[in-house]
Amino acid sequence: MTFIYETYDTVSRSGFKDFRADIPDYITKNLKYALRPYQEEAIGRYLYYKSDSNQAFPEQVLYNMATGSGKTLLMAAVILEKYHQGERNFIFFVNNDNILTKTKDNFLESASGKYLFAEKIVMDRQIVTVREVTDFSDSRDDSINIVFTTIQKLHQDLNMPRENCLSYEQFKDISVVMLADEAHHLNAGLSKSEKDDNTSWTSTIETIQKTAKKSSIFEFTATIDLANPTLAQKYEKALLFKYDLKEFRLDKYSKDVLFHLVDGEVSNRMLQAILISQYRKKIALKNGINLKPLVMFKSQKITESQENLDAFLSLLDNLTPAAIQAQRNLVLEIDEKSSILKKTFVYFETVGISDSDLVSELQEDFRKERLLLIDGKNKHKDTLNLLNTLEQPTNEIRAIFAVDMLNEGWDVLNLFDIVRLYDTRDGKMTKNGFVAGKTTNTEKQLIGRGARYYPFVIGDNLEEKYIRKFDENENNELRVIEQLHYHSANNPRYISELKQVLRESGIFDDQNLEERELKLKDSFKKTRTYTDGVVWINRRLSYEQLLEQRQESLFDTTFIPKSFEVKLPTHGVRDIEAFDEAAYVSESLEALTFKFGETIGKNIVRTAINRNKKFSFDNLQKAFVGLASVAGFIDMLADIDMRVESQYHLVNDVTPEDKLYITEKLLHHIEKDLIATENCFFGSETFEQYKIKDLFEDNILRKYTVNHHSQAEFGVSQKNPAETQYFEDLDNLNWYAYDDNFGTSEEKLLVRLMKDLMTELEEKWTDIYLLRNEKAVRIYSFDKGQAFEPDFLLFANDKNTGNVSWQIFIEPKGSQFLDADSTFKNSKEGWKQEFLRQISERDEARTLVDDDRYRIVGLPFFNEAVGKDEVKKTLRGL
Question: Shortest CA distance to 161 belongs to which of 189, 132, 131, 198?
Answer without folding.
Answer: 198
